[in-house]
Design a protein that fits this description.
This protein is mostly beta strands. The protein has one domain (about 5-40, about 50-80). It is about 5% helix and about 20% strand. It is built from one helix and five strands, in the order E-E-E-E-E-H. It has one helix spanning about 75-80, and strands spanning about 5-10, 15-20, 30, 55, 60. The strands form two sheets. A three-stranded antiparallel beta sheet has the order 1-2-3, with no helix packed on it. It has a two-stranded antiparallel ribbon with strand order 4-5. It starts with 6 loop residues before the first strand and ends with a helix. About 0% of the residues are buried.
């Protein structure tokens, strides 16, 4: 989970432009189906725990403890040659 992010403007009926860090260098317009509202619990804390990054070379760095899912995009023959 990343965020929360500021919604800059509504582009179309189901697309929004959000404010991202400049260094991410990705397109800032997202379909509504990829976004979810920010929610807090009764004490005003985020519902999902946000991990604290370690700072390495002045950049946030995270340690991956497990991969819970994956999907292969591309030619399956290259991934699993006969």
């Amino acid at each position: 989970m990343l965020g929360p992010f500021v919604v800059l403007r509504k582009i179309g009926s189901r697309t929004y432009e959000i404010q991202l860090a400049e260094r991410w260098e990705i397109y800032r317009v997202f379909h509504l189906g990829l976004l979810e509202p920010y929610r807090e619990d009764a004490n005003g804390r985020p519902q999902k725990e946000i991990p604290t990054p370690e700072i390495v070379d002045n950049e946030p760095s995270y340690v991956v403890s497990e991969i819970v899912d994956s999907q292969w995009y591309g030619n399956l023959q290259r991934k699993f040659p006969l």
